[in-house]
Design brief:
386 residues, alpha/beta, Rossmann fold, Glycerate kinase, domain 2
């Protein structure tokens, strides 16, 4: 029997490779002759660069950048020299993991360090950059990143360089002409900005920039924003979007994924001419998931929490859809699972780590052990009659 294991991470507990390896160990306890292929996955969130680099001839490079609060740190990204391809995650520079809980401050937090990573890659001669947009601590619409790339944000003649809420007074954006960038409309057609390389923004959400489903109102509270700050941030990003649209002729605020990473999706679209793509599709293509799945008799995926959000482009849903397309049975081994019928019916079976009377903390602590236990149960059930 050929088994493909393609899970995402269990956030805060195990990375995708650890998840896959523990599932494999449990399967082999029952099916010792099984041929198992492990393909750690991601969907644009944290772990995206790891997943792609694990499957490709990729080296890691380091660069000096600024974290969300402008402290100097070392960040890394993947580099494939023969393709001049950089594979990075915005969270390396501007992620929540860079801050303690008491430091969360989306008014001050900046994506400036993401711009520094982009510039480092272009300095290496990058032709293409893939950047995962999960795990952000920021809500600046790409304001900091664009400033790093040379854009100037003006309130009349005064340059805005501080808090993102200062953008409420934005009147004009000047692009760095030396970089070949422009936000000025011609008489015949708008002008899309370009960094003279292809940037793919890999996202795991479909949120627009603004509104009740936008970056600020959905994700701002978990980044530390108060009710008053949420209103101010929303006004600032709305003004940013208005000025970009006025000057460029392109209004990117409602593009699905524009609200990813605190609006960095919008910033990459507007200031770098990036393309937004579902992160699962980006990773699946990079690791050749479909070709590997064609040879499998059984597919197993997983993530820490299986819920309604899973259907919005998360790894297990992507793996399931591909398996269905190829006519393969697909199972999920997860930390916990919703009772939602729409979620559960996309799998042939779901094996959650939760146990009666077990706390969430214990569930996380024993995740590896429980994964092996569930894998053995799945193997015993699926292996009957083989």
């Amino acid at each position: 029997m050929k088994i493909l294991i393609a899970p995402d991470k269990f956030k805060g507990t195990l990375d995708a490779r650890d998840v896959a390896q523990n599932i494999a160990r449990g399967l082999l306890d029952v099916l010792p002759d099984a041929q198992i292929e492990i393909v750690p996955m991601a969907d644009g969130g944290e772990g995206t660069a790891e997943a792609i680099c694990a499957a490709r001839d990729c080296s890691w490079v380091e660069c000096k950048v600024h974290d969300p609060l402008c402290r100097k740190i070392d960040a890394r990204y993947g580099w494939i020299d023969r393709q001049k391809l950089a594979v990075m995650e915005m969270s390396e520079a501007a992620g929540m993991r860079r801050l303690s809980e008491t430091e969360r401050d989306p008014i001050r937090a900046t994506t400036f360090g993401v711009g520094e990573m982009i510039l480092d890659a272009t300095g290496r001669g990058a032709n293409e950059i893939i950047i995962g947009l999960g795990g952000s601590a920021t809500n600046d619409g790409g304001f900091g990143m664009a400033r790093c790339l040379g854009y100037q944000f003006l309130s009349n003649e005064k340059e805005l360089t501080g808090a993102v809420t200062d953008l409420q007074n934005l009147t004009k954006i000047e692009a760095p002409v030396a970089a070949g960038l422009s936000l000025a409309k011609s008489r015949t057609q708008p002008s899309r900005p370009s960094l003279q390389l292809n940037i793919i923004a890999a996202v795991d959400v479909k949120n627009p920039l603004l509104g009740k489903n936008g970056a600020t109102r959905v994700f701002g509270p978990q980044k530390g924003a108060t009710t008053d700050e949420i209103d101010a941030l929303e006004r600032a990003l709305a003004r940013l979007a208005d000025v970009v649209a006025e000057q460029s002729g392109f209004d990117q605020r409602n593009v699905p994924g524009a609200g990813a990473a605190g609006g960095l999706g919008f910033g990459l679209l507007s200031f770098c001419g990036a393309k937004i793509q579902p992160g699962f599709e980006v990773v699946a293509e990079a690791v050749a998931l479909e070709s590997k799945m064609k040879d499998a008799d059984l597919v197993i995926t997983g993530e820490g929490s299986l819920d309604r959000q899973t259907l919005e482009g998360k790894t297990p849903a992507g793996v399931s859809r591909l398996a269905r397309k190829l006519g393969k049975p697909v199972f999920a081994i997860v930390g916990r699972a919703t009772a939602d019928r729409d979620v559960r019916e996309i799998f042939d079976g779901i094996y959650p780590n939760t146990r009666p009377g077990m706390s969430h903390e214990e569930n996380m602590k024993r995740a590896a052990e429980l994964l092996r236990e569930n894998a053995r149960e799945l193997a015993e059930t699926f292996g009957v009659g083989l």
